[in-house]
């Protein structure tokens, strides 16, 4: 006999659903919502382009009267503030016939934090916060903006087995295969902005766009870390700390080069590392990462945790997220 999905399972599914709206839901977070009745999904939704309708509103509209007596799972606490663009989700839910709401994160927005739950409970709905790691991951950019005042930063590195990103003469096309390169474009499509250093810009003249069929419109804003003049259509910042001033950017994808990646690590501004490793040896060349100021091995441990690994053709993809302990220690 199969085991029915738990609350944690449904929340993880809502978190994955929310990823569909990233990053076009900006300035709002991309939330996922699933309505379940008698163990069956009767409706679902995610935040739409431009931030409206919200995920809960989408799911409720789809469910109609079938929502009566059902449970709503959502990745973020339903909003409590009304705006000119639509009613508060907590009030919509309160009049929908939903009897139970389970959400994976309290909203750090002061207009909602705890108030969404209060409105639901006042309407007679059983509202429960169930801590969900998948929800935190799916909303990492929104949470980083609200708590740290900056985007969530992912650093991408493509390298040989011996840690080089290019031959000594600078030749780097292509270290990895077609599958890995397509995966990189899918990651670009989930970012608000993509950043490279001046050396990479001058040497490679990268397009920094999304070239997957149907996703070309998801090409992120282009950012250059340099002290030079901004090329057409590209924004220049002079220092990694200036990412806090990138308006509307919740997810920043740092794609090159070695010194640029090191500068973000040195300032404690890297939240995720994505490594594409090709099954080749170069023997010598340009290293994938520059010196970022590590002074002892003790500093290097317990900072990163492996969260994903997969094969992309013959290449290996690994993702490492920054540990909670490193944030708590102030590093």
UniProtKB/TrEMBL annotation:
Organism of derivation: Pontixanthobacter gangjinensis
Catalytic activity of the protein: 5-amino-6-(5-phospho-D-ribitylamino)uracil + NADP(+) = 5-amino-6-(5-phospho-D-ribosylamino)uracil + NADPH + H(+); 2,5-diamino-6-hydroxy-4-(5-phosphoribosylamino)-pyrimidine + H2O + H(+) = 5-amino-6-(5-phospho-D-ribosylamino)uracil + NH4(+)
Keywords recorded for this protein, A-Z: Hydrolase, Metal-binding, Multifunctional enzyme, NADP, Oxidoreductase, Riboflavin biosynthesis, Zinc
Protein's name according to its UniProt entry: Riboflavin biosynthesis protein RibD
EC number: 3.5.4.26, 1.1.1.193
CDD domains (alphabetical): Riboflavin_deaminase-reductase (cd01284)
Annotated family: In the C-terminal section; belongs to the HTP reductase family.
Cofactor details (free text): Binds 1 zinc ion.
Bilayer-spanning residue ranges: none
InterPro entries recorded: CMP_dCMP_dom, Cytidine_deaminase-like, DHFR-like_dom_sf, Eubact_RibD, RibDG_C, Riboflavin_Biosynth_HTPR
Active site residues per record: 56 (proton donor)
Annotated Pfam families: dCMP_cyt_deam_1, RibD_C
GO BP annotation list: riboflavin biosynthetic process
Gene Ontology MF terms in the entry: 5-amino-6-(5-phosphoribosylamino)uracil reductase activity; diaminohydroxyphosphoribosylaminopyrimidine deaminase activity; metal ion binding
Binding of NADP(+), residues: 158, 174, 200, 204, 257-263
Function: Converts 2,5-diamino-6-(ribosylamino)-4(3h)-pyrimidinone 5'-phosphate into 5-amino-6-(ribosylamino)-2,4(1h,3h)-pyrimidinedione 5'-phosphate.
Binding-site positions, substrate: 172, 188, 208, 211, 255
Residues bound to Zn(2+): 54, 79, 89
Pathway: Cofactor biosynthesis; riboflavin biosynthesis; 5-amino-6-(D-ribitylamino)uracil from GTP: step 3/4; Cofactor biosynthesis; riboflavin biosynthesis; 5-amino-6-(D-ribitylamino)uracil from GTP: step 2/4
Recorded name of the encoding gene: ribD
Domain of life: Bacteria
Entry cofactors: Zn(2+)
